[in-house]
Amino acid sequence: MELKSKNYIYFFTILFVILIGIQSYLLLNSFQLKKREIYSLTKEKLGKIDETDALFDNDLLNNQDATSYYIQLAQKKITLATLENSYADKVNKTEKALTHYVDSLFSPLGFQVRLQKEILQITFQNAQEKLIKKPIIVYKTSGEMTHPLELSSGTWSTEKTVKQLTKEQSTITAEQEDKQYSFLVLRRSTFEVVNINWIVFKKLAFLLFNSTLILVALLFLFYRTYQNLKQQQKKISQLHDAVDNISHELKTPIATLKVALKTIQKQPDPTILAVMERQVERLENTLQPLHESDKTDADIPITFDQVKMILADFKLAHPHIKFDINEFSTIEIPINESDFTTIIVNLMNNSIKYGATHLSVSISTNKNLFEIQVRDNGIGMALKEIPHIFEKFYRIQKNNIYDSNGLGLGLYLVNTIVGRHQGKIDVTSKINIGTTFNIIIPHE
Q1: Which of 5, 67, 166, 385 could form a disulfide with 381, with the two C-beta atoms 3.0–4.6 Å apart?
Q2: Which reaction does it catalyse (predicted)?
């Protein structure tokens, strides 16, 4: 059983991990797909800004102004810092307006978008000289970008012809000539959806919740199925043990009856007939517990004398056990002889099976309640065993070995009878100290 149970756990664990992997893969793909959809929509809206640079470029440096600055930079008439400061001043002036414009596009969608355009390189083609060492921002929205994505990139080629002195400007006869300046400008636009993960999470929250719920439900169902399987296997094992015990108990009287029958066939003998009668009675007693719960004896309360005889016979059969029995001659007992006998004998037998040498039996009434208490000094039982001791065929075992012989029906029958009388059983036990059974049955 243990090996099979472990195999079930291993097999389910592997399948469960595979299922989690599949679910995670599908969720990740859905997450990436949603991100691509959001990025695509963002690019579409931002593309309109990028296609109409004049909307903001004219507020910065238009193409003609920019070319003039590039020529002055190439001629060393201004420094690179001067060009960068010019762009920075323009960026500061337009940042608020650009941010407001971008927010107006994306706020209805719940997007927080940042945008930036920059010049990556300016190449003076006449001399194949790179004029800047780091990118220069052309325009941007408020806030810094941590994971920018490219919106667009391209090169802008500009040329301008400038008249230039051929001699020193102080010379009266100075002449001018046309000189063409050509520049290649590499530009790039980037953007970032700051709250992209939160947006995607909200869109996939229902799917994520359902996936998690399915996994939890599957795990719970397996747990319940596994527990039920263990219980069924346990009951089957108990049933097999019960059948084995019954078979063992039946062997001796059946063998005795066979011998007795052969003997009596040869010569009638009253002694043999008595033996056969006792063996038949033994067979009946062995099989009786299997049908005890189906008995329908008349509901005639047991008498004091009957109780006295039941306890006296039990004491006589167990002379090595010390008994303490309270005085109950005036007690009215609301159950019949058969039920009382089954309860009291099974409880006392159970105590003796589990090592009791001292039994304390108390029978009393309290208002409208009839009470039976059986206390012993036996080996006791673990708390985890108590909820199961009233199950049919259940017997306590340690290390796969049962602590005592029997069919596991005694306490089951006791519980059945008490339940039929709308009563209840309370059990307390401590290992190596003993066990106490308290039974309360209501009566008018």
Answers
A1: 385
A2: ATP + protein L-histidine = ADP + protein N-phospho-L-histidine
